[in-house]
UniProtKB/TrEMBL annotation:
Recorded superkingdom: Bacteria
InterPro entries: AraC-bd, Homeodomain-like_sf, HTH-like, HTH_AraC, HTH_AraC-typ_CS
Claim: Coiled coil is one of the keywords in the record: no
SUPFAM superfamilies: Homeodomain-like (SSF46689), Regulatory protein AraC (SSF51215)
Residue ranges occupied by any HTH araC/xylS-type domain in the UniProt entry: 182-280
UniProt-listed Gene3D superfamilies: Homeodomain-like
Lineage: Bacteria, Bacillati, Bacillota, Bacilli, Bacillales
Spans traversing the lipid bilayer: none
Protein name per its UniProtKB record: HTH-type transcriptional regulator YbfI
Annotated source species: Paenibacillus glycanilyticus
Annotated keywords: DNA-binding, Transcription, Transcription regulation
Amino acid sequence: MDHYTLSGLGPTETIGILPDYYLPPYITLAHMFSAPDHWAVHNRVMKQYVLQYVVNGVADYPIEGNSYTTRRGDLIFHRPNELHSILPHPSEPYVCISIVFHFGHSSFPIHELCEEGEHYLGNFADHPIDRWLSELVAHYRQPGLTHQMRCQSLLIRILSEAAHTGRAGDSTTNASKMPPLMLLTQHLQTNYHREVQLGELAELSGWSKNHLLFLFRQYVGMSPIQYLTWVRINKAKELAIQTNLTVSEIAERVGYSDVHTFGRMFKKKTGLSLSQFCANLIRS
């Protein structure tokens, strides 16, 4: 049956003959959770799909005999009825975003996004997925159809991008370029509290500025300045979770002398103000 014939049918008449279209996901939980001391999950089974994203801290995450040590930015996926545990390390607070969802009675080919037996989707600490997850939680807390639709569209985008990024990353990495790039990203992670000039990075890597920009964008997915901004955002989140510092004090700690500039940057990049980010955090 061609597309023109399908477009002339009523909605219920098309169901069952559109194998490439599926119901939007039903999201039954979306929250950011700060684990209290000694919190853990042992041998749990969920009846729905789960995405678990580490905002802060470290946790061992065994699933069906496979054990993963997850840190900030790691995204874990598991399927209905898979036995799993969540065992935070006591050395630092564990904060995670949990998304629980299903596709109803629709037969959704999730295996095309994540191969059977695969649970670790990658690290997205400096990736838009980090922001989309926070936005999803914020919309889930709001009533109304528009917020529900935003949640569904964000979840689909997260699943699609995680699958694409994970597979693309394996094929594009050039081992000869990685040591200098790792040195540069580490330098930015260490010096996030001050301005870092491009010339400083060029001297550190031994590359020209143009070559550095090209390789950084190619392998990291953003410019060095954009990466520095993401490092500052994630550090600000850590400080908001772990300390009682004011917004002004956090802004200064991450390299911003003007709190208003920091506030605009944080909201532009995350979709939330720092106070909204903290409001989404469930602490018990």
